[in-house]
Every structure is written in C-alpha cells, then in structure tokens.
Design goal:
The chain has 988 residues and is mostly beta strands. Helix content is 4%, strand content 45%. It has 5 helices and 68 strands. The chain has a 6-stranded mixed sheet. Strands 51, 53, 55, 58, 60 and 61 form a 6-stranded antiparallel sheet that branches. The radius of gyration is 33 Å and the shape is globular.
Length: 988
C-alpha cells in the first residue's frame, strides 16, 4: 500500500464529522450472512505501537528474516513504544519486529520541520530505504536544504537509506523550486526506485519540465544510491493529485490518480502508461465523476487492477475496483458496498493486492452497517474492511476488523505463508479486535491474518453437458476441464447406472472429452451423472443429458461464426464455424469486455466479408433463427475505426426473404462491444436453411454466432412475464400516488419536474435464468432527441402500486444496471437486465427496478402502464435452459403460449395464432352493437380492419388479405359495451 501523506491529513480531519454521521445511524440492523463467510481467515495477532502524541501509519512489510517492519510518521516525544526524541514536527518513525513477534528496534529520522514517510523497502544488504517528503532544511538527519528558492511553498521528496539495525547511511533530497509532495514509490527491476507525487514547481532545481497546470504529477526515477536518472512532469491542465504507481507489463510504469480539469469542478480518475525512460505511451480519464485512483497494481497476467475512491459527497458509496488490459481497455469493473444505498456512511478503499490464487484483496475503511456486500456490523465509527475476490472480481469473503472508535486502514502485505499483514492508524482503546490499549492520540495498528484454509477439492469447469443426436447416430465429443485446487490427485471417474450410451475419457486433471452413442436408443431424454473422486478431495459431479431425436425430428444447430466453438455459461454448445460460403474472411479481437453477455468470447470473433452465406443442413420444419452481433471494429479500442451510427450497414436474407435491411449494429446496441440478438421464425422445406449476408449502405456485413432452434424447443425456453406492479413518483407531489395512471413517466431536470418509474415482476418457478430483458412501450413526447433511460436495481420489494410515493419509494442501487435511448418514435424499447434478474432468481424471486434519466436533459418520456387500454404494458422476457416450475407465468417473446391469458375469461379469441394472410376472430358476447377492429404494429402505427360481414357480440369474423410483415401486432376490439386488446403474431 502506498500511503498518501496529503490524503492522510484529509482523511484524519474529516473523520470526526463522519464519525458523528455514523453514530446517528440506528442501532438495529439486519445482519447479512454471506455464503463465503466461513472462508474468512482468522486473526492470529494484532500489535499497537505509539507514543504519547500522534502516529500516522503508512505501511507494513514482511522482512527477509521472517519478521516485519512498520513505518509511518510520528510527532511523539520519547514515550510509550517510542525510544527516540522528536527531531521537530513530524518525523519518519520505523519499528522492526523479529520472526517471534518481539520488537527489535525503533528509529526516528527527521529535520526541524514536517517529515512524512510514505514507503519502506528492504534492500539486498538487508537494510532499508525510507521514502517520503520533507519540509525541513539541512539539520538533524537531513543532509540538504529544501530546493525551494526564497519564500512561498516548499517541500521535497526525501529518501533515507538505513542499515539492517536502523543506522542511517545516506539521504537524498529531490525537488523543484516550490512544493513537491511524494505520494507513492516502488522498487524497480534494476534495483532502483520510481517515485511519484504531485508538484507545483516549474522547471528548476531537480525538476526539468515546466508546470502544466496548477498541480502536476511528477515522476522521478532514481538508482539504488538515490541518484536521479530522469524525471517527467505529466497530467492535465488542471489540478492532479493523489498518485499511485507500479511497474508495468513489458517494462515501464503504470500510474493513476485524480485530475480536476478547469472545465469541471469534480476530479476524475486518471491513468497513464509510461515507457522505461518516462515517455507517455497513453493516458486516459476513466469518466468516473468525483473519483480518484488510490491504488494501481500490475497483475500476474500482465493486466492492471485499480482501486478507485469515490468522493464523500456521494452517500452509500462503494469500494470500486477496475481491471484493464495493457492498452487501457476496461476488462471489468466491480463495486462493493455495505449498508444500504441510502446510507449516510461510506466505504473508502485504499489498497488492492493480487493474492496467490490469482484473486484480489481490497482493503479500506468503512462505517457501514451490515448489508449489501458487507457481512458484519461495525465495531466502532470506522473499521478496517477487507474484501477478497476471485480472479474475475467476484466476492469470496469479507471481514470487518476494528476497535470501539475509529480505525483507518492503509496497507496490505501478503505474508510468506499465505496470510496477510494489515495496517493502519487507530484511535481505539483496547476492545473488540484490538488487544492492546491506546498509547496516545492515534497509534500504528497492525493485524496479522492467518492463511485461508482451502478444502482440497475437485472442480469441473461446467456443471452439465447436453447432447442432441438423431437416433442411431453419435454426436461430436464435448470437453470440460477437471481441476484440483491443490496437489496432483489420482482421479477416478465413474458414472451412474443405465448410461452405457456415455463414453468416459481416461481419468486425470485437465481437459476431458466425453462422447455419446445413440445406437439402439429410442427417441427420448436420457440422463447420467459423472463423478470425479480422489482420496482426500471433495468430489466433483457433472450432469449429462442426451436428447435422442427421431430421424425426421428437427435438430438444433449452433455455430460460432469465425470461431473454434465454445460452450456458453448456460450450457449451450456452439460448434466451430462451418457450412459457410462466399468470400472467406474472419476477424477477432484478443480481449475486451462485451456488455450484456457472460460469454464475451462468442462475440469477440466474427465472420465478416463483402458477401458470405450459410447453407445449414436441417430436417424440414419450423425453426427460430437467432443471429448474434456485436460491433468489434468501429468504436472498439482493438478495432480499426472510431465508432458511430452509419459506419456499418448491411443486409440479411433468410430463406430468400429480406429480414434485416441496412442493419446497423452500433445503432441497435447503442455502442460498440455490446451484444445484441435478432430472432426470426422461418420454415424450411428443402433440407437446407439458407442465410445470406450482403453489403448495404456502408462497409461489410458481419455475424458473431448463429442459432437454429426448432420452434417447439425454442418456445419452451422463452417466457414473457407481465408486470405485477408499476407506478411513477413525482418530486413535486411527494406524497401523491400515481400507481393507477395509464402512462408511466420518466423525466429528470429541476427538482419540481423529476419523475422516476418503478416496475415489479414475479420470478416464481424460475431456478435459473439465461437472459432477461425489460420491454417498455413508449417514446419521447417533447422532442426528437434520444434520451438516456437507465435501469437501477431496487432491493426492497415491499412497495405497492397504489401505495408508493416519492417520499416512501425504496432506494435504488448506486450503480446503473444498463440503459437504452428513447426518441420520438413510439415503440418497444429493450433494456438488458440479465445479471440482476439472475441474482433475484437465486434470491427472493421478485424483480424491482427503477427507471430514470440520469443525465438531467429535462425531456419527458412516457411509457404504457398495465392500466393502459393498449395492452402494451411493460414485460420481462426471460430465457432459461433449465426447467421452469409451475408457479411461473409462461409465454414467449414471439408468441404467447396461451393468447387468452392476456384477456379476461370469456373474452374474444383469435385463431389460428400465429397467423399468415388471414385469421378468424370469435367475438365475446359482452360486445353490443357494431364492433370496430384496429390493428397496431410494434412502432405504434395502426390501421382499421374491414370485416367480411356484420360484426356484433358473439359472432365470428373473418379477416383476409392482411399483407403484413411478420411480427407482433395488437388488435384493438371496440364496441359501445366493451374494449379489448389481443396479441396477434403474424408470420410469413
């Protein structure tokens, strides 16, 4: 951990007011127990060190003799644990302990003014280099004057070399002509050190570069003797502060911090990559308002992980960590928070480290109650809060450590035995986790955690395999990986009875290939369970399902276009690219997160050329074709061109019929690296499904993956859930309920015109969800501009449609789930909620979301509610590849399973449904007098339908010569006594 001295003062000065806020929280809280709680490592010991005044902790490091060294700054005289007198103001203070935990020595180094230690490093001669900054001139332990000339601001970087017993050997002062404050330092592979801080100095003294703004990042490279090799001034035209630095992949350095540009009042996180001689290779702002990078590390895989602090003006603020590749492209971003989103307390990260298992440990301090990601209530006003994740940033466990007052966390050191040294500054007396009394106002406090005790176990990379074959044939083999979390076990594979059709591979950790043979099997479903076991290990199980189709039954085909094939996170098997013709060209990007999918690799490769086609052999029948797209060239950091609408427009024909005309992936997805799907119902009569991709108005056609699923099978996995409660709230009518209105409103501007919409859905019966998207019908009623409509999670599902108001509305999550844009074109708008819905399906089976415009553009968006007579209410379209319980409301995104379920019992009915060029309508007897028919398409456009004979209640009406494009239509049936809206699916 790199302590930030100027930041540390800010933290110290604000802690009292924050503590007062936290103390006003209610004493009662709900205690959340996480599944990973049992994995928390135990506290082995803790140690308090201090004098009679104040000690500012910076870092703890394990030493080569098995002991450890604490380092920071002190203004205490000889007292308590401090054996040497103060040199003036604050001094460097280091304390060395042996492997048996006994104190060996403590040393004080300083000049006549403020000297603050930031980092300590052990050297090859078992001595130490102390790095910090100083306001002192020559005197005491300081060998040189401050480099500032004349009056005004002063302060320099100060490096002190000491022996293994703490005797000073040399010191160096490095600075410009004004104030220079060190924030961080690292040892470099050549035996030197890289120093990073901020400077308001212009060129002069040791600083070679001019000032860029009010305050700049200043990087200095020194050798092992403290001599300057080069320096670099960089940053923005505004104020740059609180820097952190690490060695970078392939040589050079990666640094982060916060920059406040003149055009903005708020800082934003800043990252830059430097070469070995300090040349800036790239730099970027992360676009996180009121944030700063407080730690940055290089991972074992050559990528970078950042810990990001959010400004205290936000309530319920979380720890944030972000992973990026060597070019600065974001791979993933995670947040961890305690309490509730409406809490007045906060969680502030200070350090992130990679652990020996490839995961990450994030440390900081928190005043939050248990809740969200935090499993324990606070011990005092602030505690150490540690969060451990796996390599993908998924939380494994968390731990709250503290005394009865304020404990502020600054350092993590990975111990040689797999445990952790945690360090910070403490105001707490003895009690709770603190075993020793307070020595002064504030002391050093370290806590030693034991290594995590992992159960030896075997794990399959997938939990199930699904095979589909035609009777009498075999299927392509499928592979899974078997791993052991420790050791090299001797593995045995076994399978359940009555599974002769399944062939087991040779047993060993690694990639295992399973195959099936349907010879002699009748059409139907067959299941088996494979068990991998080894002495002393927890066994692993793999569920295998075989679906045997009759010779003439349709079979599912999935193709990884441009790829080698993969199995998705929900178990769908995409084979390697095949059945293609035309110009053979593919493109792929090596990394990068693709939004709205857990299967990034499926979308990171594509088939793309001037003209290509697929001729897929299938049994004749009805199919649903799903085309998967993501724009990975225009607007992608690893692509070739800037993004934007109209850069790529192409056509798709299926079975000779135009399905997509001048299709623009970027426009449909609202950006690059975003997964989108298009679904089409087709009929095959000649044994081949033909899909043709051709150039449109711009660039090349492309596709990432293709699914061809028999219609009956497809509709078993797609379910349309009606909204069970919907309402909007209004900031100008804070106690008024709008739950029975026929329109839902989203508008954000001044306080008296802001409105947000709340929606609730029931997931009863769903054990697992593959995908989920919210569909809302409406438009921007004020202008033609596109307006951001963002969905936020709502964890409190107790609100009711007729009871919710602005004053009692439940708080939403801090981070948005995702968004869509809405202009003046009325129609359906889709918002991907997959991750949140998956979590709710595994939890309380209720999904509540809040819709708002977070950009405050002051434009009114209206959407149809469940009370609207159009029948176009919000709905949640859920896809699942596992069985659905009887409590689930079932339907389909393309065709309702039971059309009559959308109207009251005894209402009118349409048949057949789906329809082609005609249908019949059986009118409800509730209709009286003449009946009018009005058909509305998905864009909101409608037309009157002429019936073939007189229409009245109880009669049957034939509608012919529709000449409609395929899609979902709403049929409004109106008479003086009754109005109904029926869903009608038109197919070609």
């Amino acid at each position: 951990m790199k302590p930030r001295l100027s930041q540390r003062i800010c933290v110290f000065r604000t802690s009292l007011s924050l503590r007062q806020k936290i103390c006003r929280l209610p004493l009662a809280a709900f205690l959340i127990f996480s599944a990973g709680l049992s994995a928390q490592p135990a506290i082995q010991f803790d140690k308090t060190q201090g004098g009679s005044a104040t000690e500012f902790f910076s870092t703890v490091k394990q030493t080569s003799d098995g002991g450890y060294i604490m380092a920071g700054s002190s203004n205490s005289p000889i007292s308590g644990d401090k054996s040497e007198a103060s040199k003036g103001g604050q001094d460097y203070w280091v304390v060395k302990f042996g492997s048996n935990g006994a104190k060996q020595w403590d040393k004080t180094f300083g000049g006549s003014q403020e000297d603050r230690l930031v980092q300590v490093f052990q050297t090859s001669d078992n001595g130490y280099v102390l790095v910090g900054h100083s306001l002192s001139d020559s005197g005491g332990d300081k060998g040189q004057n401050d480099k500032a000339s004349g009056g005004g601001s002063r302060g320099d970087y100060w490096i002190v070399k000491i022996s293994d017993s703490g005797v000073k050997q040399w010191d160096k002062t490095i600075g410009g002509t004004s104030a220079d404050v060190l924030d961080d330092a690292k040892q470099t592979p050549d035996g030197g050190y890289i120093l990073l801080g901020y400077s308001i100095s212009g060129a002069g003294a040791d600083k070679t570069g001019p000032s860029l703004g009010g305050r700049d990042f200043w990087v200095v490279k020194i050798d092992g003797e403290g001599s300057i090799q080069w320096d670099k001034t960089l940053g923005t035209s505004g104020a740059d502060r609180f820097g952190c630095i690490d060695n970078a992949t392939g040589g050079g350095y990666i640094l982060g911090g916060g920059s406040r540009i003149p055009e903005s009042n708020n800082p934003d996180s800043f990252v830059a990559r430097l070469s070995e001689n300090g040349t800036v290779l790239w730099s970027k702002m992360l676009g996180l308002p009121d944030s700063e990078v407080v730690d940055i590390i290089q991972t074992s895989g050559g990528e970078y992980v950042l810990a990001i602090k959010q400004n205290e003006s936000f309530v319920g603020i979380p720890y944030r960590i972000l992973k990026m590749d060597n070019q600065g492209t974001e791979i993933w971003r995670k947040s961890f928070a305690g309490g509730s989103a409406a809490s007045s307390a906060f969680d502030e990260p200070t350090v992130v480290r990679q652990t020996t298992d490839g995961g990450f440990i994030i440390g900081g301090f928190s005043g939050e109650q248990a809740g969200r990601d935090k499993s324990e209530n606070p011990k005092g006003s602030h505690d150490y809060w540690i969060v451990k994740t796996d390599a993908n940033g998924i939380k494994q466990w968390d731990k709250t450590i503290g005394g009865s007052s304020s404990d502020q966390f600054y350092s993590i050191e990975l111990a040689s035995d797999g445990g952790y040294f945690l360090g910070g500054s403490s105001y707490s007396p003895q009690g709770f986790d603190k075993s020793e009394p307070l020595k002064g106002t504030m002391d050093y406090w370290i806590v030693r955690l034991a290594a995590e005790t992992a159960l030896a176990k075997l794990t399959f990379s997938d939990t199930d395999l699904d095979f589909t074959v035609v009777a009498g044939s075999s299927a392509l083999a499928q592979s899974v990986t078997l791993t052991a979390n420790t050791g090299t076990p001797v593995v045995t594979l076994s399978k359940s009875a009555n599974s002769a059709w399944l062939t087991l591979p040779a047993a060993s950790p690694g990639s295992l290939s399973f195959s099936v043979d349907a010879t002699g099997l009748a059409p139907g479903n067959y299941t088996a369970q494979v068990t991998a076991s080894a002495p002393g290990y927890e066994s692993a199980t793999l569920d295998v399902e075989l679906i045997v189709k009759a010779v003439n039954d349709p079979v599912t085909v999935r193709i990884d276009a441009g790829g080698q094939g993969l199995t998705t996170s929900d178990g769908r098997v995409f084979g390697a690219d095949q059945f293609y013709g035309g110009i053979n060209r593919t493109f792929a990007i090596p990394s990068g997160e693709v939004l709205y999918t857990a299967d990034d690799l499926l979308y990171r490769n594509e088939r793309s050329s001037e003209s290509f086609n697929y001729s897929i052999p299938v049994t004749d029948g009805a199919y649903v074709v799903v085309l998967h797209f993501a724009e990975i060239w225009f607007g992608s950091p690893q692509g070739g061109r800037p993004g934007g609408i109209g850069q790529r427009m192409f056509n798709v024909d299926i079975e000779g019929s135009r399905k997509l005309d001048n299709y623009d992936i970027y426009a449909k997805a609202n950006g690059a690296l975003t997964a989108v799907e298009e679904e089409f119902r087709v009929s095959v009569t000649d044994g081949f499904l033909n899909i043709d991709f051709s150039q449109g108005a711009a660039n090349l056609p492309t596709v990432a993956a293709i699914e061809v699923v028999p219609e009956a099978e497809y509709f078993k996995s797609v379910h349309t859930l009606p909204v069970i409660a919907d309402a909007y709230v209004h900031t100008n009518f804070k106690d008024e309920n709008f739950g029975t209105e026929d329109l839902l409103i989203v508008k954000s501007g001044e306080e008296n015109i802001s409105r947000q919409t709340y929606l609730k859905f029931d997931l009863s019966g769903f054990a697992q969800v593959t995908s989920a998207r919210l569909r809302i019908y409406g438009n921007n009623v004020e202008t033609t501009m596109k307006v951001n409509t963002t969905a936020y999670s709502v964890e409190n599902d107790s609100w009711t449609e007729t009871g919710i108001t602005y004053n009692n509305a439940p708080a939403s999550g801090f981070d948005p789930i995702t968004y869509t844009t809405v202009n003046d074109d009325i129609g359906y708008h889709d918002i991907d909620l997959t991750g949140f819905v998956q979590a709710q399906a595994a939890d309380d089976k209720v999904v509540s979301v809040m819709l708002k415009n977070p950009t405050f553009v002051n434009r009114k968006l209206v959407f149809h509610s469940k009370e609207n007579s159009s029948g176009l209410a919000p709905e949640l379209v859920v896809t699942t590849h596992s069985p659905v319980g009887t409590g689930a409301r079932r339907g389909s995104a393309l065709v309702p399973e039971n059309i009559s379920s959308v109207i009251e019992k005894g209402g009118s009915t349409v048949y057949p449904n789906p329809v082609r060029d005609h249908f019949s309508l059986k009118l409800s007897s509730r209709h009286e007098g003449p009946v009018s028919l009005y058909l509305i398409d998905q864009s909101g456009r409608g037309r009157n339908l002429a019936a073939s004979q007189n229409t009245s209640g109880g009669s049957e009406v034939d509608i012919a010569d529709l000449s409609l494009k395929s899609g979902i239509y709403m049929l409004k049936v109106h008479s003086e006594a009754e109005t109904e809206v029926l869903k009608v699916l038109v197919v070609e």
